[in-house]
């Protein structure tokens, strides 16, 4: 028996339904215009349609609950029946809407689309979370809702909405991780927290590249002071306890003592210092008029074909600039063991591990979100803000696609350079 006639009938039905929907929409819009009715805003068409849809859904729910249609004689003597309505105003994506919620005599009706004591539909909560993730303060969100939707939402209500993410944040922070990651980038962002007095506190971040080329933010942790290797040891140990058995390369900004912390957790991991941070730190010891000259003199060092060639170029730099800026020479000498590892790999790997740019872009988004707050009342409020910013990094998925394409070639090079270590079975 062929299914082609059935498929054709289904397609014809879909086309007819679509045409009917378009005609209905056009008719509603034309009627609204002829009656002088606005499409949006207070008393607009969208508010009226939302009211009708919600009330229709509620009537369907009460019918299912009592077991008979309105005015149906079968309902007589059924033991429960409709008992009028009560008015209730709910905040929706199109503004405040007053709906008539049906009641039953027994008082057992529990509406689902607009629950008891519910004053906001889920879309409003999502809007508040989205605005908060983009750096708006609670006062700015309240002002936005009042201006655009014509409704008053208190700062406390907005705080209650954003507090709902805390449970999800804890679950995300403790989720199991992959057994192996090709690269992990680590860094910290300072935020101001009022704990007795306002002070800078670091929020530690770890961002990984998966074996499939996806970006995975492994977690965030609040520190209690300066960015130290001791706290990073705690962070890396937690990652290992969550399932990370191996990391091929870990890229950082050259924190003293970090290589030893990494070795204690993952003995085979290669620690790579960010070249961009080395350059920036070099400029701190030089006069502004010499920055360009120093940058040109150091470029042959970090673009050398081999470690030996880099050593030769660095000796030339030290000879030319060591007398004037001995601190720069010492800076590079002290970081040399963590600077040179990327020189052992081909260009595909070099260009993605020579800096912490991958995590710096995430940090920029976080800084934008926290800057509007000024400071936070406590550690949890700071973490909540950072978490919301992280969850809103790529709403369209376009960044994920670009990231995957960018890492396709480097991951192939990693497969060759670290043969056997990228397969979960090896761990």
UniProtKB/TrEMBL annotation:
GO MF term set: DNA binding; transposase activity
Give the matching PROSITE patterns. Answer: TRANSPOSASE_MUTATOR
Coiled-coil zones: none
**Keyword check for Isomerase:** no
User: A Pfam family matched by this chain, by name?
Assistant: Transposase_mut
Q: Which GO terms describe its biological process?
A: DNA transposition
Return the annotated region ranges for Disordered: 64-86
Write out the biased-composition intervals (Basic and acidic residues). Answer: 64-75
Identify the keywords attached in UniProt to this record, alphabetized.
DNA recombination, DNA-binding, Transposable element, Transposition
Q: What does this protein do?
A: Required for the transposition of the insertion element.
What family does the entry list?
Belongs to the transposase mutator family.
The protein, known as: Mutator family transposase
Source organism per entry reads: Actinoplanes aureus
């Amino acid at each position: 028996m062929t299914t082609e006639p059935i498929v054709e009938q289904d397609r014809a039905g879909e086309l007819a339904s679509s045409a009917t929907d378009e005609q209905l929409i056009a008719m509603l819009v034309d009627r609204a215009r002829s009656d002088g009715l606005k499409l949006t805003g207070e008393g607009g068409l969208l508010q009226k349609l939302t009211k009708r849809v919600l009330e229709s859904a509620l009537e369907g729910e009460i019918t299912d609950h009592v077991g008979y249609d309105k005015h149906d004689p079968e309902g007589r003597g059924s033991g429960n029946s409709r008992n009028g309505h009560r008015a209730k105003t709910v905040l929706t994506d199109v503004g405040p809407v007053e709906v008539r919620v049906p009641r039953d005599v027994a008082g057992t009706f529990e509406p689902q689309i607009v629950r008891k004591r519910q004053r906001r539909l889920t879309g409003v909560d999502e809007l508040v979370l989205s605005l908060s993730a983009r750096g708006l303060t609670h006062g700015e969100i309240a002002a936005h809702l009042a201006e655009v939707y014509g409704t008053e939402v208190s700062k406390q209500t907005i705080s209650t909405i954003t507090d709902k993410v805390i449970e999800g944040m804890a679950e995300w922070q403790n989720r199991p991780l992959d057994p192996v990651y090709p690269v992990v980038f680590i860094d910290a962002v300072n935020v101001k927290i009022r704990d007795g007095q306002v002070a800078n506190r670091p929020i530690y971040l770890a961002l990984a590249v998966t074996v499939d080329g996806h970006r995975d933010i492994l977690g965030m942790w609040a520190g209690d002071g300066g960015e130290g290797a001791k706290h990073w040891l705690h962070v890396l140990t937690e990652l290992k306890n969550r399932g990370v058995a191996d990391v091929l390369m870990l890229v950082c900004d050259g924190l003293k003592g970090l290589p030893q912390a990494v070795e204690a957790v993952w003995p085979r991991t290669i620690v790579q210092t960010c070249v961009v941070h080395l350059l920036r730190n070099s400029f701190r010891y030089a006069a502004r008029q010499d920055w360009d000259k120093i940058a040109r003199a150091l470029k042959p060092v970090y673009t050398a074909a081999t470690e030996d060639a880099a050593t030769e170029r660095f000796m030339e730099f030290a000879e030319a600039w060591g007398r004037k800026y001995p601190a720069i020479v010492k800076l590079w000498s002290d970081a040399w063991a963590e600077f040179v590892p990327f020189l052992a790999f081909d260009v595909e790997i070099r260009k993605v591990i020579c800096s912490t740019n991958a995590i710096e872009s995430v940090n920029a988004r976080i800084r934008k979100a926290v800057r509007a707050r000024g400071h936070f009342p406590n550690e949890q409020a700071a973490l909540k803000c950072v978490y919301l910013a992280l969850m809103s990094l790529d709403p369209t998925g376009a960044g994920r696609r670009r990231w995957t394409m960018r890492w396709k070639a480097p991951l192939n090079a990693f497969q060759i350079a670290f043969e056997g270590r990228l397969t979960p079975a090896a761990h």
